[in-house]
Give the backbone structure.
Amino acid sequence: MTCPTPSSALASNIERRRLMQILGLGGLGLAAGLPLAGRARAQGAEIAFWATATLDIGDGWDRMSEATGIRLVFTDNGNDMGPVVARLAAGNANDLFDVGGFQGGAERELFRQGQIVPWDLARIPNFARLWPLAKDMAHLRNDAGEQIGIPSVVNADSIIYRKDKLGVVDSYGVIFDPALKGRVAMEDAWINSAVFTAMYLKESENLPIGDPGNLTEAELGLVMEFLIKHKRDGQFRTFWNGWEQGVQLVANEEVDAMTGWEPIVYEGLKRGLDVAYAAPVEGYEAWGNNTVLLRGATERGVADAAHAFVNWMLDGYYGGALATSRGYIVPADTTTEYAAAHPGEFDAADIAAKAKHVADKFAGKVAWQNVRPDNFQLYEEWWQKLRNA
């Protein structure tokens, strides 16, 4: 997946408007909202949030602005951590952005590089409300035990499919079924597609694979040769890049099944398509999208505003907005509590059902996504071979 590199807040907002047109989430106002009791307001501060597009809540950021006095500028980071890490290590990301919303696994590497700094949990009281599964993610703490990532969103991914064409799908095998040649797709990112393939080969083809999220050199070779063969055979319509293309593949009825993100299902349903999300026998790919404090925020003196922003994300409204539009869950009881206390804003039963849906996924068979496996560089090399095949 490619990562947009806007050079200014204007470019960021242009990208955001394009995304909002796709999602139907409205404009960019940042004015009205809900007060947050007991919080020192960071009046006049601006936070540049560089995160996966599906973490954006459009006009919902209005509520954060009113609660904290902070203006937010959102930029889609493309979701692929390879370009994100590269832009932090050798590019200008720390000059442009204050807070990152990144797929989990690279936090310790980014901390060792000096690209991110620890959070002060005393300034994030809502951290205490997180579910234990979120608090216990070891890669979100450095060797000194400091919190270097806040587990802000969790879900577990699988397959988007056309029920009217395929009936009920319950295996990743549908992606590799020759009967669907040219009518399936996968994401152009090994952090998802290599894991899905490894899960299928391990669980349904009984190949010798240990952890699908952290493949050995030999295991990775098996997985990637399998994908390359199927690509050369014309199995895949495309390897899609970014949220917009993922939505369009479904909306334009170009594919009957594709591995991808659950929000694409919700978007398809909104457009009247008979689409569903599979519960595969091989299990789900579990992931966490974590919020990190970029070094540049401290250098620019906006760390206080960044802490207020992250605490607000865990306060309930953000979780309700995200669950409603995406089906993603902020792993804290504040989400369902807020929805129950504000029936005029959210459908409390819907929010509770989605929270249970995600919790149930984690209670079953899952393989964790890992954006920095032990053989990370080898993954990159193999994925380039796939692209060139």
About this structure: The domain at 156-283+373-388 is CATH 3.40.190.10 (D-Maltodextrin-Binding Protein; domain 2). Residues 4 and 52 are 11 Å apart (CA to CA). Residues 217-232 form the longest helix (16 residues).
